[in-house]
């Protein structure tokens, strides 16, 4: 990518604003961009088997990508990660050099900054500053996955549902706003917490009846965050 690339400054700003790259110097970010290229995925695009991430490392600029495991015998899915703007992937392939047996789907039209994975390994060796932001990011991913495993093993589906909505609710001057999962189907939400669509339908209906959620087609709005927190604490 060169400075003549359309939206080059936008991509620079996105990297600079992200938690993954914000502490890097401008010179290093320019170097990263020069050794990268732009890749776009259309909404609904599927990638099976992880071939893409074996040789390519990605930074999400726009859109969401779900990374999931699929049981081919019954079609059941479990969503491991939702990669959103600012996220980087696939760190597993970067670390061990082996293909990651995982499927990916673009939930929106997606724009990515992509680089050959060998190039990223050179950045790690060449720039200690890169490690300072990469290693904490990696640790946070591990913590999130540990929490997800604990929830699956130790908590019932009602508690997991409450935690999911609380986790993704952000507060601002206008009140509470559900981010990331607000327009996902009930089926997709069920796959995040490891349950069935019928179960999540019942839980969402209960939250509607208790006036904690407002649901309009696929759009979900949190109407009472304190009520969700109280429900979780009482359960």
Question: In short, what is this structure?
Answer:
This protein is an alpha+beta fold and 235 residues long.
Please identify the structural class as seen in this structure: alpha+beta
Order of helices and strands: HHEEHEEEEHEEHHHEEHHEEH
- Average predicted confidence as pLDDT: 90
* N- and C-termini, Cα separation: 52 Å
Strand order of the largest sheet: 1-8-3-6
- The rounded Rg comes to 19 Å
Describe it for me?
This protein is of the alpha+beta class and about 240 residues long. The protein has 10 helices and 12 strands. It has a 4-stranded antiparallel sheet with strand order 1-8-3-6. A 4-stranded antiparallel sheet has the order 2-7-4-5. Helix 1 (about 10-15) crosses helix 2 (about 25-35), helix 7 runs antiparallel to helix 10 (about 225-235) and helix 8 (about 185-195) packs across helix 9 (about 195-210). The longest helix is centred in the middle third of the chain and has 27 residues, at about 130-155.
What descriptive keywords fit this protein?
4-stranded antiparallel sheet; 10 helices; single chain; 235 residues; alpha+beta
SSE arrangement:
Layout: H1 8-17, H2 26-34, E1 37-41, E2 46-47, H3 51-55, E3 56-62, E4 65-70, E5 77-83, E6 88-89, H4 91-96, E7 103-106, E8 110-116, H5 117-126, H6 128-154, H7 157-167, E9 169-172, E10 175-178, H8 186-193, H9 197-209, E11 213-216, E12 219-222, H10 225-234
Antiparallel strand pairs: 1-8, 2-7, 3-6, 3-8, 4-5, 4-7, 9-10, 11-12
């Amino acid at each position: 990518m060169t400075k003549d690339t359309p939206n080059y400054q936008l991509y620079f700003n996105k990297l600079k604003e992200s938690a993954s790259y914000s502490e890097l110097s401008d010179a290093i970010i320019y170097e990263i961009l020069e050794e990268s290229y732009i890749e776009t995925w259309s909404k609904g695009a599927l990638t099976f088997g992880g071939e893409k991430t074996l040789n390519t490392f990605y930074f999400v600029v726009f859109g969401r990508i779900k990374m999931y495991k699929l049981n081919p015998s019954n079609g059941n899915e479990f969503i491991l990660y939702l990669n959103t703007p600012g996220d980087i992937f696939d760190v597993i392939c970067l670390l061990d050099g082996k293909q990651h047996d995982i499927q990916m789907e673009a939930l929106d039209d997606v724009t990515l900054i992509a680089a050959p994975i060998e190039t990223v390994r050179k950045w790690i060796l060449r720039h200690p500053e890169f490690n300072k932001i990469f290693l904490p990011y990696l640790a946070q991913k591990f913590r999130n996955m540990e929490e997800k495993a604990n929830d699956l093993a130790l908590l019932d589906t009602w508690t997991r549902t409450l935690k999911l909505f609380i986790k993704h609710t952000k507060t601002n001057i206008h009140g509470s706003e559900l981010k990331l999962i607000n327009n996902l189907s009930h089926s997709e939400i069920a796959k995040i917490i490891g349950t069935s669509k019928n179960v999540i339908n019942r839980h969402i209906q209960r939250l509607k009846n208790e006036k904690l959620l407002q649901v309009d087609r696929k759009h979900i709005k949190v109407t009472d965050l304190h009520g969700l927190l109280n429900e979780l604490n009482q359960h």
